[in-house]
């Protein structure tokens, strides 16, 4: 699916800047920080600078927008893989204002704004009750505590689509309080996955199967991105070194660290590529 992005659930990735500051457990092994360091940039933390880009970089989405229009389809843009659009810093405000204008100028693109700082959204967007139809607004929730903290802030904003990224999934999530009624609920999409990278933490299969079951029960599109580095050992048909893990209060589980490619993205015997139909509307 991804054309100019390595992320399965989007066509393109756009970064208005690079750099961020860690805010919760999901950030512990932030791949973006590692990637920036590998490229020779120290951009993480309060005192570090952020990296900004040229006009040529900002023109790329305009070209994607034209291509999508010519092809008669909508394309998704993930914003941002190397930053958090809602980080509060004065030096980010000019790039943020430019981003809002760019979103306005690219009506054939659906912009996926994913944040771990939903408490800042209301203050930083120029929209109140008139959100553009091409903004999909999401927050990351890796465990129940953060779901309860971040979801109320996400849901205050009437974006066309509201979604959750449960990746890396670090504990069981109960989203039922928000999935109140079949076909009528405030969350339009759930993306889930395990962690990859050097220090990745395993995801208990019961956590992700529970999420899948909740989404199925309430008709919420579900996308399973990956197992990450760890996978239940019985899903792999080649010799592995299984380990019995005890994760939280869950039943012990035999998993193997095989790398994200071999671990794949099969869950309950199939792939899950749910995506909401856009545009939806929230009052
Ligand atoms: S919010 Fe995202 S980009 Fe920022 S440190 Fe956390 S994982 Fe990395």
Q: How would you describe what is shown here?
A:
The protein is an alpha/beta fold. Helices cover 25% and strands 17% of the residues. The strands form 2 sheets. Strands 1-2-3-4-5-6-7 form a 7-stranded parallel beta sheet. A 3-stranded antiparallel beta sheet has the order 8-10-9, with no helix packed on it. The longest helix has 17 residues. It binds iron/sulfur cluster (SF4).
Any key phrases for this structure?
10 strands, 17% strand, 7 helices, 7-stranded parallel β-sheet, binds iron/sulfur cluster, 283 residues
Helices and strands in order:
Layout: E1 12-13, H1 31-38, H2 55-71, E2 75-79, H3 93-104, E3 109-115, H4 121-124, E4 135-140, H5 144-155, E5 161-166, E6 189-193, H6 205-217, E7 222-226, E8 230-232, E9 243-245, E10 253-257, H7 260-263
Parallel strand pairs: 1-2, 2-3, 3-4, 4-5, 5-6, 6-7
Antiparallel strand pairs: 8-10, 9-10
This protein binds iron/sulfur cluster.
Main sheet characteristics: 7 strands, parallel
Bound ligand species = iron/sulfur cluster
Major sheet: arrangement of strands: 1-2-3-4-5-6-7
The whole-number mean of residue pLDDT values reads 93
Helix content bin: 10-25%
Distance between the termini: 31 Å
Strand content: 15-25%
Taken in chain order, the helices and strands follow as EHHEHEHEHEEHEEEEH
Radius of gyration: 19 Å
The total beta strand count reads 10
**Global shape:** globular
Count of runs of 4 or more consecutive helical residues: 7
Judged by helices, strands and strand pairing, the structural class is alpha/beta
Low-confidence stretches are none
